[in-house]
Design goal:
mainly alpha
Length: 252
């Protein structure tokens, strides 16, 4: 196991339990930390990191595009795990997490496709092409949009959480397909980006931005989860109109 893999494993072992504990309690702080790290990482990518050897300054979109791609897939993986938890326990917290992660994942994937189109125009000469990575990513976003549309059509809370969980699990099948698409099929898209494939001066801003996007996504999921739980509580205990005053039939 190389040094990078060890660092990633140790970081995950520390970061995941910490975020699990902190997100329900301090989502705004996590979101703010994400924005700060994204700002720092993008600033370093624009003004400190060297120009990309083949693409020049156009290649600086790497610092936005690659972390967005990583975290979008992580977010949908969180949605998958929460959906399994929802089916297993039938607890509203898992359902709220699944809904929130799907929404944030769709947002990130929309940003990812937009960034990719901006990058493709000067490098490939087109805004869009039916490349395997692009096509599977578009299918991924449409699938999870379908999950949200389906959820919005169901009124009964228990039935809604069950169908949402099943639909989320089915949609998440495409996550590993998106990740492996550049390996399984001939693709215009570049291969996997990692500290091993990126020049050393580019690694730090890329890593800072990746952590920033992670905190942004987790904080946003935490905030949206609060709203979803409040909506579930309102569905379970709807406000009823006050009882009418009793009639006094004996009064003259």
């Amino acid at each position: 196991m190389n040094t990078v893999a060890i660092l990633v494993a140790v970081s995950a072992a520390v970061l995941i339990p910490l975020l699990w504990w902190a997100t329900p309690r301090y989502p705004r702080s996590i979101l703010a930390l994400g924005f700060v790290l994204i700002t720092i990482g993008h600033g370093m990518g624009l003004f400190v990191a060297p120009r990309e050897a083949m693409m020049g300054d156009v290649g600086r979109i790497l610092y936005a595009h690659v972390p967005t791609a990583w975290v979008a897939l992580v977010t949908f993986t969180i949605a998958f795990g929460a959906a399994v938890g929802s089916l297993w326990t039938n607890k509203p917290g898992w359902d709220a997490t699944a809904e929130s992660a799907v929404e944030i994942g769709v947002l990130l994937t929309g940003m990812l496709l937009l960034q990719g189109s901006i990058w493709a125009r000067p490098t490939w000469g087109v805004w869009w092409t039916w490349d395997p990575r692009l096509t599977t990513t578009a299918i991924l976003m449409v699938s999870f949009i379908g999950v949200l549309v389906l959820r919005g059509l169901i009124d009964q809370p228990d039935r809604r959480s069950t169908i949402t969980a099943v639909a989320t699990i089915l949609a998440a099948v495409n996550v590993p397909i998106v990740y492996k698409s550049v390996e399984w099929w001939n693709s215009l898209h570049q291969g996997y980006s990692s500290p091993d494939t990126v020049s050393d001066p580019m690694v730090l801003p890329l890593r800072i931005t990746a952590f920033g996007m992670t905190f942004f996504a987790v904080g946003a999921i935490g905030l949206r989860r609060r709203v979803s739980l409040a909506e579930s509580a309102a569905d379970s205990s709807p406000e009823l109109p006050p009882l009418p005053e009793p009639l006094n039939l004996g009064a003259n």
